[in-house]
Design a protein that fits this description.
The complex is a heterodimer of chains A (689) and B (151). Chain A is an alpha+beta fold. Helices cover 27% and strands 22% of the residues of chain A. In chain A, the strands form seven sheets. A seven-stranded mixed sheet of chain A has the order 8-9-6-16-13-14-15, with helices on both faces. Chain A has a five-stranded mixed sheet with strand order 11-19-18-17-12. Chain B is of the alpha+beta class and 151 residues long. Chain B has a five-stranded mixed sheet with strand order 2-1-5-3-4, covered by helices on one side. Classes of the chains: A alpha+beta (689), B alpha+beta (151).
Chain lengths: 689, 151
């Protein structure tokens, strides 16, 4: 049954105060995201033909990977039709379920089913069928026109939505406007989401006096973690801050959280001192004895920092809860909302909107449930967009990780390797798994997100890699590349130190250890385009250096990068040049794959120079971008990206360069200063001349 | 109380006078190009042009633009003809998620109206206060410089 709020008072002048029916008792059984693999039969539902035009209903979320453009290229190429007669629309949950847009899978997994469906539609139209339903019989890949280079495949047409973006047309969830719409926010205690908190007392009269006040809503949706909120609704969005302030809410907050010293909680050496790490990635047995390389590498928590704080609009329309959301998983949002408010799935519809940046952070249901609860309570359409401070406080973040990484070198080769990592959860997180389930997943499942990229793409002799996770008072979860970025950074730092000990050029040293010829290919190529072996251009009064790194993402795509840096006497680091070579198989849209590589390189720069999320007493202390800075224009050097021409089936490109960029920059700092960066983001005082 | 909005005089309703200009534009006038990103003037996603100056609409009181000339991204193109900066953004494939780009474009337009032939350093300095998490900065730099040749 749908939870209903009580309409307690309706004063004149349209000012309404709503008092909820008391704190909701929310389900302790989580809604599990369903992740069906796409197939050709399902893909038939993504394309439609009517009156000589085609509609492609995008089976993915569009968040800047410009997948709408790439999949339209597949559709046009396979249908054999002109670019202008295919319209792309973003999906709502009234079509068959598609899995969340995560893991750089959109071309890799969706191109072929889409191509199969388009081929079937093309043949049906050619045979004279212009109405009704068709079926698809999968044909050999070689018979698909859109999975080989030529024509639109390998071209870079103007991006879908490009014209709307540059003219300011409404595309994002917060751009939705509905008649009678009001503006909501759910206030939560300034505390860890892992301790129980709820509003105790507040000054309703003071809030009522704020111009634009509409309501205070107790029944404001499920807690985030264990933080129960208090909803407010206003006639204008600017009134929300004043109402929040006027309420002067007194919060009930349970005892301070355990492990509020987060850096200490993930200290890998402290963890190793009390026993072996339970989750094994590489099970070799390095020999006992002294190590030639022995690094402790620390990577802190980091926010996703999309410029769009998450937003949702919710409304009751014709007995249906309709929600517009910028989410990576509209179907999960639909399932979650139906469960939370007690409606059948068919009575909840979620419309995907273009997302203003997500990077793994917009996969769970938060702001959507707040908007839904406030619209249920008030009967009015409600828009909720989180403040920047809420993004930091209530979102989940890249977990901190601490690495002890060791190598032994003989005759120019690594003979023994040991990588130990302590981190927090990425997959089975407190944001989605209730406390009673966490013990089981911790014991039996490990965390594939933390493990990602821990198996170094090298032949390392007797190699061991193992990890453990600890629950933190701040929510952690997927962040671009999951564990792959931090793991590769640690691995590439150790490889560089090993090359120095061996007295071998870092590029040659890596090539001597690489097993996969595709990875060797990107390494050799980046050496060519960056003129590896030459010295970086001198910069007046600065120490300059050049570094290299490489890696493989999810076993199938490869990247290598070279970075130049200049370091001033005070130890401030500037990246002055970046090169990257990338192999993701067949490239549908080279310009947008290059754009993904460029983005990953800017994120790489951020990993080394800026990304950190300060915490205090177990909750996020950052309020603005000033407290959690991201790279800016003047931080970013000229970037050259080169794509390997390949006829392998297309692979992912959204996260791959994250395995190469950070290591290249860190190794360039080593080359410039003679000092190894082990604590990120780097601090100037550690590199002062 | 009124201002000139994209060339036309519009009234500012009294109950919106104390709102941030950003919300007046987005929610009252339906000009949703300028975006809410941080609310404190750091990120630049809400950038518009007021009397020729790139301005953070999230920290500008709506009532304070009374009598002033306010330009938003919706007013840049003339019918189907894009402004050279908009066209350069498409030619260089700048947008990834696109959310910050209205602010970026307005900052670039304001720059090119003040500095006809900017150097790369001028562009970096003028655009440094507009954040982009996708990392489109190299393309923004290239697009502004190429637009400068066409303005």
């Amino acid at each position: 049954m749908r939870r209903r709020a009580l309409l307690a008072a309706a004063a004149g002048g349209g000012v309404v105060a709503l008092i909820g029916a008391g704190a909701g008792v929310w389900s302790q059984v989580p809604v599990i995201p369903e992740r069906p693999q796409p197939d050709s039969a399902t893909a038939l539902g993504w394309v439609a033909h009517r009156d000589g035009r085609f509609t492609l209903t995008l089976p993915r979320a569009e968040m800047g990977q410009n997948i709408a453009t790439a999949l339209k290229q597949i559709a046009c190429a396979e249908l054999g039709v002109a670019w202008d007669i295919v319209d792309v629309v973003l999906h709502a949950t009234d079509m068959p379920r598609v899995k969340a847009t995560v893991g750089s899978e959109s071309v890799m997994l969706f191109a072929e089913p889409l191509a199969q469906a388009c081929a079937a539609l093309r043949d049906a139209l050619a045979s004279g069928q212009i109405a009704g339903v068709i079926s698809v019989t999968s044909r050999p890949l070689a018979d698909l026109r859109s999975l080989r280079a030529g024509g639109l495949i390998g071209a870079s047409p103007e991006i879908t939505h490009g014209r709307e973006i540059v003219t300011g047309a409404p595309l994002y969830a917060a751009d939705i406007r509905l008649p009678g719409m009001q503006y909501g926010r759910v206030l939560r205690a300034p505390a860890s989401g892992e301790v129980q908190s709820r509003p105790l007392r507040w000054d309703l009269e003071a809030a009522r006096a704020v111009p634009g006040f509409v309501a205070v809503v107790e029944e404001c949706g499920p807690p985030i973690g264990q933080a129960q909120g208090l909803g407010i609704v206003a006639a204008r969005p600017g009134a929300l801050d004043a109402i929040a302030e006027a309420l002067e809410i007194e919060w009930s907050i349970a005892a301070p959280p355990a492990r509020s010293d987060i850096a200490r909680a993930v200290d890998v050496d402290a963890r190793l001192s009390v026993g072996v790490l339970p989750h094994v990635v590489l099970d070799g047995a390095p020999e006992d004895g002294a190590w030639d390389v022995d690094l402790r590498v620390d990577v802190p928590m980091a926010a996703h920092g999309p410029i769009e704080p998450r937003a949702a609009v919710a409304a009751w329309q014709d007995g249906t809860l309709r929600v517009w959301a910028g989410t990576q998983d509209a179907f999960y949002i639909r399932d979650f909302l139906a469960d939370a408010v007690g409606l059948p799935l068919g009575s909840v519809t979620v419309q995907s909107c273009r997302i203003g940046g997500a990077f793994g952070g917009k996969t769970i249901c938060t702001v959507e449930a707040e908007a839904a609860a406030l619209t249920l309570a008030t009967g009015n359409p409600i828009k909720v967009q989180w403040t920047r401070a809420q993004e930091f406080a209530l979102g989940f973040h890249r977990p901190p990780s601490s690495h002890r990484i060791r190598a032994r070198v003989a005759q120019g080769r690594i003979t023994d390797w040991d990588h130990a990592q302590m981190s927090s959860h990425i997959m089975f997180t407190a944001a989605v798994v209730p406390p009673w389930m966490q013990r089981g997943t911790d014991m039996f499942a490990g965390d594939g997100g933390v493990a990602r990229g821990m198996a170094a793409p090298y032949l390392l002799g007797r190699a061991r890699a193992a990890y453990d996770m600890v629950r933190l008072p701040v929510h952690t979860g997927p962040w671009r590349g999951l564990g792959a970025g931090p793991n590769a950074l640690a691995i590439e730092c150790a490889m560089d130190e090993a090359a120095l000990i061996a007295g071998v050029d870092p590029l040659a040293f890596r090539l001597a250890h690489v097993a996969d010829p595709l990875l060797a290919g990107v390494l050799e190529r980046v050496g060519e385009i960056a003129s590896w072996g030459s010295t970086p251009a001198p910069v007046d009064g600065m120490r300059v250096g050049r570094g290299i790194a490489c890696g493989t993402y999810k076993d199938t795509s490869h990247a290598a990068a070279v970075a130049d840096v200049a370091v001033d006497v005070r130890g401030r680091v500037r990246v002055t040049r970046l090169w990257c070579v990338h192999d993701c198989g067949l490239v549908i849209n080279p310009d947008q794959v290059r754009a993904q590589c460029e983005g990953n390189l800017v994120w790489s720069l951020g990993m080394v120079l800026t990304d950190d999320l300060p915490t205090d007493a177990g909750h996020v202390a950052a309020q603005t971008f000033a407290d959690a800075p991201i790279p800016r224009m003047t931080d970013v050097p000229p970037i050259t990206v080169d794509l390997i021409q390949s006829d392998r089936p297309p692979q992912g490109a959204g996260e791959t360069a994250m395995v190469a960029g950070p290591g290249a920059i860190a190794n360039a700092i080593r080359a410039a200063t003679g000092q190894r960066a082990v604590r990120f983001p780097v601090r100037a005082e550690d590199f002062a001349a | 109380m009124s201002s000139i909005l994209n060339g036309q005089t519009h009234d500012i309703p009294p109950d919106w006078a104390d709102e941030p200009l950003l919300f007046l534009l987005r929610e009252h006038f339906g000009l949703t190009g300028a975006k809410f990103g941080c609310g404190v003037g750091i990120c630049g996603a809400c950038t518009i042009i007021v009397d020729g100056v790139a301005t953070r609409s999230c920290i500008t009181r709506a009532g304070n633009v009374e009598g002033l000339n306010v330009r938003t991204i919706e007013g840049l193109a003339e019918a189907d003809i894009l402004h050279p900066v908009q066209q350069a953004w498409l030619d260089h494939g700048v947008p990834q998620c696109g959310y910050c780009q209205a602010g970026q474009i307005m900052a670039a337009v304001a720059l090119l109206e003040q500095v006809r032939d900017p150097s790369a350093e001028d562009v970096d300095a003028a655009m440094d206060a507009n954040l982009c998490r996708c990392g489109t900065y190299p393309r923004i730099r290239a697009a502004v410089l190429s637009a400068a040749e066409r303005v």
